From TrEMBL:
Keywords: Signal. The keyword Cytoplasm does not apply. This is Cytochrome c556. Residues 1-26 form the signal peptide. GO terms for molecular function: electron transfer activity; heme binding; iron ion binding. One of its GO terms (biological process) is electron transport chain. It comes from the Bacteria. It comes from Marinospirillum alkaliphilum DSM 21637.
Length: 155
């Protein structure tokens, strides 16, 4: 029977204790990455529908537009927590997040906050019947999405 030396046992213990949190984080992060992708896809779908309704069609149906905007706000507030931990493509090939998100976290957080603020303002404008103002902000928000994606998202 082979016995581990005290230093060998210590090394094994350090390895196992170091490996377990990484493994737990990897499992949790994989779910987070999938949820993040699904959330962004749904935001993209809803935002395009809202933009088409308010900007392209110049709809006066504020209640219909508010259905989209309220769901956008709800989904938007799910996002910040989903970027707490890096998700390198080496571990999560499905990830669309570039490492710049965590290398330039202050900038990314600023842009995310701006996006969430815009979603709230759009919803407020729609609630107040200011369809034209909401449409202008929808267009500006779409430009911000492109700028953020160009820097922080893989295509």
């Amino acid at each position: 029977m082979h016995h581990l030396s005290r230093s060998g046992l210590s090394l094994l213990l350090v390895f196992l204790l170091g490996w377990l949190p990484i493994q737990a984080q990897a499992e949790m992060s994989a779910r987070d990455v999938d949820l993040r992708i699904d959330t962004f896809d749904e935001i993209d779908r809803l935002f395009k529908a809202l933009r088409f309704k308010v900007v392209n069609q110049r709809s006066t149906d504020r209640q219909g537009a508010m259905v989209y905007s309220s769901e956008l706000v709800r989904l938007g507030y799910r996002l910040p927590d989903l970027f707490d931990h890096p998700s390198p493509r080496e571990m999560f090939p499905q990830s669309r997040a570039r490492p710049e998100i965590w290398n330039r976290k202050d900038r990314y957080d600023f842009l995310m906050d701006e996006f969430l603020d815009n979603l709230e303002k759009i919803h407020e404008d729609l609630s107040a019947g200011r369809m034209s103002q909401a449409g202008q902000l929808i267009d500006r928000t779409a430009q911000g999405c492109r700028r953020c994606h160009n820097t922080f998202r893989y295509r």
